[in-house]
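Hi all, long-time lurker, first post. I run a small reading group and we've been trying to get comfortable going from sequence to structure in the token notation. Rather than ask abstract questions, I figured I'd post a concrete chain and ask someone more experienced to write out its structure so we can walk through it together at our next meeting. Sequence below, copied exactly:
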Amino acid sequence: MILPDMLKTLTDNARQFQERLTEWQAAMAKGQEEAMEQARQWQAQAMQQQQEVNARLMAQMEGASETMQAQWQQMQKAWEDQFATMREQGEEMRTKAMSATGGSGGNAFADWSETYAAQMVAFTQKMQGEAAKAIATATEARGKGGKKA
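-- Answer (accepted) --
Happy to help. Here is the structure in token form:
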């Protein structure tokens, strides 16, 4: 192969690489946009579900005794306090992750965010498990007693 042919081949390869790189970048940007849209949809669904749960809870509270209402409000406050504490700890960790050096270079915050999200999902699943147990216990109690607790 003579020098002009080699240079032409190198130029063609560089051009093809640049075209492929542009395609890859476009595909990655589209993937990020789709992920953000899915996250927005999930958040909207979660908010709607929370509103439905709140409405059902308020309906249950209306029929409950004052003692039962006071106990529920005490538990709710404890849960809210625990959530606030977890959120503060998460914010402290996020601040540390943003200032972190090393690791994956500029991806330290992205890595932290993914780990934090995974931990929050795991925690939420534990809470859902506890809620399922409470529902099962309530259903069993209603079946045995035939009335609301």
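A couple of things your group might point at:
The chain has three helices and no strands.
Residues 84 and 90 are 10 Å apart (CA to CA).
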